[in-house]
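Appendix B. Chain record.
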Amino acid sequence: MTDEVPEAVPQAPPEAPPEPGGPAPLGVVRTPTGHAPVDAGLERLADADHLPADGHVEVYEDVHRALRDELTALDAPSPASATPYDLRS
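Structure tokens predicted for this chain:
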């Protein structure tokens, strides 16, 4: 038996916790959808990671508006579906 004491392994100092109420990234993974306007909205959500909580509302409302506009555009008739002929007799 030896009286050797194991050498202490230096440890990195612990990371400072975020300031209370300060911005803290959530680390949520945003998977691209393949639809550019929707993907732009998802990327816009990343802006909320760097804002205090009271700034999130503006980002969320902006993304919600953009997504709602995209969904509304799906209901709009496309110009290609318009009847090219006058059907009056």
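Further analysis of this model is presented in Appendix C.
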